[in-house]
Amino acid sequence: MTALAFDRPRLSWRAAIADRFVEADHARPATLRLPRGALTLCFDDFTQAAAITGAAALERVEARGTFFVSAGRMGAVEPGLGPLYTDEDVRRLAGAGHEIGCAAYEAGDLSVLEPEEALSQCARNTIELALLGLKRTPRTFAYPKGRVSRSLKHALPADFVAARGQSPGLNQDRVDMAQLKAFPFFGWAALDPLLAALDRADRNRAWMIIALRDVANEPSAYGAPTGALGTLLRKARALKLDILPLADVADRILAAQR
Questions:
Q1: Cα-Cα-Cα-Cα dihedral of 160, 185, 109, 148, to 10°?
Q2: Is the dihedral of CA 50, 111, 254, 239 positive or negative?
Q3: Domains, the chain, ordered by start
Q4: pTM strictly above 0.90
Q5: Count of C-beta atoms within a 10 Å radius of residue 217
Q6: Which residues, 6+ apart, have CB-to-CB distance to 43 below 8 Å?
Q7: Nearest by Cα to 52 from 9, 100, 84
Q8: Residue 73 Cα distances to 19, 66, 137, angstroms
Q9: What are residue 101's DSSP bridge partners?
């Protein structure tokens, strides 16, 4: 695994080409106009350690992030990753002002499903999150493992102001709000490339999204070391980037389209 590789299925060349065509088909095009660069940290199907340590790192710089929850995975223990978030973690994160985003109930590959079946998983997940007592309905979505079909992108409910995929890169100029790009943050080796991307986001007033699953002093293969995450957030603050949840930045972008 390279420092900038995602936790996604190994694709055949046909599937990889198909994914490129899906990404090129902008279901919700928008022109990005921000007063300054922005940074969003997204935690996908995250560990309990990330729910604690990752949230604390953001809060130390007076920022909040987006935590994508698959309700069917709460309390699971994943080999090589460890215990995942619990219902108490989700409630605590929401109470602290972090965004709780929606994922599929089981976090499976949605690209192989018909849109109606995939969206039923999203609906079930939203209902389960409401049963936890969350006051806000999820307004953003993350495609599990970054896989999505063209038909699903175009069928995405309007209740979701943005959806995030897993293609690395900055979001700038003309973007697709139905499949935003995101850099992975896996290990110390990812830190320098991410710091360089922060500089580009600052210069170009771009939106940089980072996705990860784990935060610990010795994280899993899909996580950031605590010290590395702190270094990145301190640099973002020094550059005066807006460090905001996904929905907050999406709202700014969509408001500028009017």
A1: 50
A2: positive
A3: 21-256 (3.20.20.370)
A4: yes
A5: 9
A6: 50, 51, 54, 65, 66, 67, 68, 211, 212, 213
A7: 84
A8: 26, 17, 19
A9: 68
d(C-alpha 187, C-alpha 160), whole Å? 31
pLDDT tens per residue, the chain (258 residues)?
333 345 555 555 455 556 666 676 788 999 999 999 999 999 999 999 999 999 999 999 999 999 999 999 999 999 999 999 999 999 999 999 999 999 988 867 777 778 898 899 899 999 999 999 998 999 999 988 777 888 989 999 999 999 998 889 999 999 999 999 999 999 999 999 999 999 999 999 999 999 999 999 999 999 999 999 999 999 999 999 999 999 999 999 999 987
Q: Tokens standing for 59?
A: 């809060």
